[in-house]
Every structure is written in structure tokens, then in C-alpha cells.
Amino acid sequence: MIRIHKLQGYRLKQKKKVVSDMLMLFTSATRAGYFESVLDTMNLPQGASICYQYPRVSDDKDAYPYIHESAQKATCIAGEETLVFLINRDAPNAFKYIPLRKGKLLFCEESEGMLYYTVELGAYCSADNAENYADFLETEIDGKLYYKSQGGKRSGFYVFRCLPQTEVPVSEKPNSWRETVLEVSQCGYFQKAFPIFTKFGLYSAVKEQPVRIRCRGNERFFLLHYGKKYRAKIDYFIPDVKFDHDKAAQTGEVSAEMKIEIVPDCLESTLPLLRLGVESGMVKSSFAVKGISKNAELRYGSVTRTGSKESLYFAPHPIALKTKRSKWRWVLIIGIVALMLLCNAVDKFPVDKIIDAVSETGKEAAQLKYGQFQLAVAQFLNEYLGVYPALAGMLNSGLTFVLILIYGESGK
Fold first, then answer.
1. pLDDT surpasses 90 at 124
2. For residues 105-126, average pLDDT
3. Is the domain of 260 the same as that of 149?
4. In this structure, are 79 and 68 located in the same domain?
5. Which residues have a Cβ under 8 Å from the Cβ of 221 and sit 6 or more positions away?
6. Residues 185 and 225 in one domain
7. Any idea what the Cα angle at residue 286 is, between residues 307 and 213, rounded to 5°?
């Protein structure tokens, strides 16, 4: 089983890596909950942390039959490289192993008869040669890999470490996500249901830059700024065995509609349904943040479908996010207030009194009495005295309107 925790991000680097003592984590999808776990693994952006849990089978605290001694809690180190696999246990003759994501181990903990491995998801990856991947694992990791013998007996481990300096033939490529979901969709249990594979991305609407994911202690989240616009991009893949493509092309029928929700709602308007095609593609949805929330969630709110009666599965786990006002908002408010105070101060400045003193006693005497600065200000305002009151009134009215607008929005 997989549970979603927090977020943290880093960039995808396209390379093949030689690893030393890489932690290998295997999961299956033989139950409904596991379907969704695999869909979450393929959907969440880089940095989502997922908790893989493995049970013990007796009261003996060390009785974890699915975990090799090389990967027990005492041997785990935070930050070590990890590779996550799916085991296709429905494959004919022998199990099939599909690499899903790279990552790094955050921590390992034991609770209530379960051992939890929390992994920060990294790059999408795919096998260099999917057909021969099982042979590689059986050859290089002999005695550890979970497998089914010719007699039908199952043995091996779901969690172990490969040998030092073992070169694992997986690559990070631009199309790794699609290659992987194609492989996963061919697994028997995914063909018995209606899965929608998705890959979620969040970008600024103006510059199309990926949204930075923040880390605060153990908390990880998308940080969205009040008043700014964002765009969600969702790559999707629907196994083509589910539809009559010729009929769909003639009728214009869509295979599914998906809705994105943010709870509690802090958006300018309701996001529309996203219409998905009959096999694969990308959909986009733009929105503006118009509310403040310290703990919000972004999730797929609902999915409807046409053309199939199978059970529908999609990535259900939400992504944590927070919304805040930009620091420049307060700079703007302080600047407006300061300018309004300056306008009022100038409006009450004793221009006539200083100018009369200059006329009666002379410039030098007036300067001694009021100072050089006040005298210069009085002379400047006296020159433009005819237009200043009107300009000051208009400026104060405009600044007051802006302040009311800012505080009015903050109350929404």
C-alpha cells in the first residue's frame, strides 16, 4: 500500500546512473487500493513523498518476511537512492518487473506491525529493454528478487539492496512516463478495470515556469500567491483497449471528463471540466488565486466517462498547497499611506504665512524664522498654488479607492 505525504521538487536530469547499494522497493496492484497507489505514483510531481508499507507476519518484531536483511530499518540511511518497481504478478509463466520512478529514501519507521519506507519521488524512468528486464534482475540480484518458480511457489523479497556498483539499466527520458504507463497498462489487472493514467504539473500562467515547491520542516507544499494566475497541465493516457476508436472519431465522443478542485475553495471561479480524448493527450486549466488558505488541497474532484462500463480508477490523493499574499502588497499599502499623509501635510502647509513674511520682513529674515527648507517649499507651492488643491484632491481620492479595493479583496 502507498500513502501520500508532502512535497518537494527538483529538476529532471536525463542520464543513466551507476548506483552503489541502491534500495529496491517493489509493489503490486492486485487490489483496488493498489490500483490507485500506482496511479498516484505516476501522477504526482517530482518530490511527492510516498510511504510504502510492509507487514510482519508474527509477533516476532523481526519477522518481516518480505524484507531482505540488507534493507531492514537499522540499515536504512536518509537520502540514499531508491528505485520503485511494479510487479506484474498476472504475467504468464513468470512475474514481470516494471521500473516506475527513481527517488531517495527520507526515513524508515516501524508502527503497529508495519514497516514504512517513506520515499521522495524523483524522475520518471523506464527500462532500457523491457523484454529482458526480468532476466537482468534475476541474474544480477540472484536470491533476493520476489518471483514465482515453475512449480508455482513464490519466494524472495519486496525490499532489498542490489550489489555495490550494479548498473541498473533504466533511463530518464522525456518520454519515460509514457513508456512506463504503456507497460503498466498491459498488466492483467489494469485491463480488467478503467484506469486513467495522469501526470500533474503546475506552472505560472504568464511565463510558463514550473511552480516552486516549498519545504518547511517535514511539511511540503505548492506555494501559490494571492492574485496571481496559474495553469495546471495534465498529461493523460487511457488504455486504448477501452474504446472503439473508429466510432469515437465519427461521433466525436470523448472518453472521459475530469475536474480539478481546490479545497477549501480559494479561486476566482469554478474550474471547468477537462475533456479527455479517447487515448492520450494533454489538457490545461488556468485559474487565479483569490483567497488565502494555510492548508488547502488540490485534487481530481470527479471523473465521468463514456464508452465503458468497467470500474473507473484515477489518482485520488490530493496535493498540499498554501496560498499567501505577496510581500509587495504590503510595500504598496505602506507607499500609498505615506503618499496620502504627504498630500495632507502639504495641503496644510502654511504657504500664505511664509510668503507674507517674505514680503514684510524680506527673504533673509523669513529664512531665519522658518528655515531654508520650508521657505523653498513655500515658494514652490506658491508658484503652483492654483493647481495644487485640485491635484491633491484627485490624488487622495484615487489612493483611497486603491486602498478600499485592496482591503475589499482581502475580505473575500
1. yes
2. 88
3. no
4. yes
5. 6, 7, 213, 214, 320, 321, 322
6. no
7. 105
- Both 167 and 314 in one domain: the answer is no
- Domain shared by 231 and 174, yes or no: no
Which contacts (CB < 8 Å, 24+ apart) does range 340-346 have? 340/396, 340/399, 340/400, 343/392, 343/395, 343/396, 343/399, 344/396, 346/377, 346/381, 346/388, 346/392
Determine the distance from the C-alpha atom of residue 318 to the mean position of all C-alpha atoms in its chain, rounded to a whole number: 10
On whether both 186 and 202 belong to a single domain, the answer is no
- Is the confidence at residue 408, as pLDDT, over 60? no
Of 314, 327, 214, 205, residue with least CA distance to 268: 205
**Which amino acid is located at 347 in the chain?**
D
* Same domain (yes/no): 336, 255: no
CA distance 132 to 150: 18
The structure's pTM equals: 0.72
* 274-276 vs 154-155, strand pairing mode: unpaired
Q: How many CB atoms lie within 10 A of CB 334?
A: 10
Read off the pLDDT of each residue in 355-367 and give the average, rounded to a whole number.
Answer: 71
Backbone angles phi, psi at 211, to 5 degrees: -70, 135
**Residues sharing a CB contact under 8 Å with residue 84, sequence separation 6 or more, in sequence order:** 25, 26, 27, 41, 50, 52, 99, 100, 101, 102, 103, 119, 121
pLDDT per residue as tens digits for the range 308-346: 555 678 888 888 888 887 666 667 777 778 887 777 777
